[in-house]
Design brief:
Layout lengths: L1 H33 L5 E7 L3 E15 L2 E5 L4 E6 L6 E2 L4 E5 L2 H36 L5 H34 L1 E3 L4 E3 L9 E2 L5 E6 L4 E8 H13 L11 E5 L10 E6 L9 E8 L11 E14 L1 E3 L4 E3 L2 E7 L5 E5 L1 E6 L2 E6 L6 E5 L10 E5 L2 H7 L7
Parallel strand pairs: 1-23
Antiparallel strand pairs: 1-22, 2-11, 2-15, 3-10, 4-6, 4-9, 5-8, 6-7, 8-10, 11-14, 12-13, 12-15, 13-14, 16-21, 17-18, 18-19, 18-22, 20-21
Helix pairs in contact: 2-3
Length: 394
């Protein structure tokens, strides 16, 4: 009996449910057909080609413009280190003191020898003065005059030699006090107090000049060829006589307050890396830059004439390449494939695909398809200008 009841319910309810579902689908279909198509709201910018500054960015390393090795110039015992390791020192500041007693003894001995030879010169001069009139009176022979003249000249030469020995001894004594030859920052002491210094362990420390500082970076052959090619095509204008300004970006992303100038370019390529060295010089009065520090450097001064620039977010990628959405005169969207160039801050240079007056979608492109009707909101021109103020070519 139960089985028969279940079969009867199925026969009644299934057709009823099918009719209800059919009516609902028809209602939905009628609702969709009735709903009007709404325009998609997007933000767009109008392409206006203009001369745009660009910069060439490289990884660089700092180098002291004058790193001086402080070495002992005489052999002897090191008495004491006077300076504080790692401190800034001035030209003439005492760094080390050696034991001066042996050198002072040499000076005293040289003084005594000089005094002895000067006394000999006095005797020889007096003897020569007495001999000359006696020879003139034929009281003495010419040989006596020659001997007196020779003794005087030998004594004079001995005095000159003694003066040179005294000067050498005084130099050695002065070398016992080791001073800094430049203004700079000092390094660690390589020897301990009491060490005997000679030619084998004469290195004491290093003093590095901090201002000006050298900035070394390498330019590859490929990048140079590309720059020259773009200049030849009129796509890039370089500064007169290639006088780029050098801007330094520190490790925290801040810009160093002083700009430098290129002062040396190696004429030869490095055979191992295919690059050649470029060196810039920059003032560093506050000592912010230190030797062997890695920084980013930008060569500023090049310009792209009549450049077309769009924000990076406007450019999308597909299997066929990069594209943007362009709004035509009917306020409908069109897909436009483009050829992008270098980065320009937060923007792209567009080499091909866009022209003056094109309206490019900046925001809202994710909701677009071909021939989508749109309502256009103009992009913030001031914000776009700020985003393109910092440029780089990588």
């Amino acid at each position: 009996m139960v089985r028969e009841i279940r079969l009867m319910l199925k026969c009644i309810w299934f057709p009823l449910l099918l009719v209800i579902a059919t009516l609902q689908l028809q209602a939905c279909g009628q609702g969709k057909q009735a709903a009007p198509t709404k325009p998609v709201s997007v933000t767009a910018m109008t392409i206006v080609p203009k001369d745009t500054p660009v910069s060439l960015e490289f990884v660089a390393q700092t180098q002291s413009s004058q790193g001086v090795n402080i070495q002992a110039r005489v052999s002897g015992f090191l008495d004491t280190r006077v300076y504080i390791e790692g401190s800034n020192v001035k030209k003439g500041d005492i760094l080390f003191e050696m034991d001066k007693k042996p050198f002072q003894a040499q000076v005293d001995a040289a003084n005594a020898a000089l005094a002895r030879y000067e006394a000999s010169v006095g005797v020889a001069r007096a003897n020569l003065a007495r001999t000359k009139p006696l020879v003139a009176q034929n009281a003495l022979s010419q040989r006596n005059l020659d001997d007196a003249q020779g003794q005087f000249e030998q004594a004079s030469a001995a005095v000159a030699e003694a003066k040179a020995d005294l000067y050498s001894a005084q130099l050695n004594l002065s070398y016992a006090t080791i001073t800094s030859p430049v203004d700079g920052v000092s390094s660690l002491s390589a020897v301990a107090d009491g060490t005997y210094l000679d030619a084998a362990n004469s290195q004491l420390t290093t003093v590095s000049v901090l201002s000006p500082m050298w900035i070394n970076f390498s330019l590859s052959e490929n990048i140079l060829a590309r720059i020259l090619g773009e200049e030849k095509k009129g796509q890039l204008t370089l500064p007169e006589q290639d006088e780029f300004s050098v801007e330094i970006i520190l490790v925290d992303g801040t810009t160093f307050p002083y700009r430098g100038q290129i002062d040396f370019s190696d004429p030869s390529y490095n055979a191992d890396t295919g690059t050649f060295l470029i060196r810039a010089e920059v003032e560093n009065p506050d000592g912010v830059l230190r030797p062997n520090q890695y920084v980013r450097t930008q060569l500023v001064g090049a310009v792209r004439p009549d450049a077309i620039v769009v924000p990076q977010r406007a450019v999308q990628q597909s299997a066929k390449g990069q594209f943007v959405w362009v709004i035509n005169k009917s306020d409908k969207s069109e897909l436009r494939y483009v050829t992008v160039g270098d980065w320009n801050g937060d923007n792209w240079f567009i080499d091909e695909g866009l022209s003056k007056g094109d309206r490019v979608v900046i925001d809202g492109a994710i909701r677009l398809a071909a021939d989508t009707l749109v309502t256009v909101k103009a992009a913030d021109a001031s914000k776009d200008a700020d985003s393109s103020s910092s440029t780089s070519t990588k």
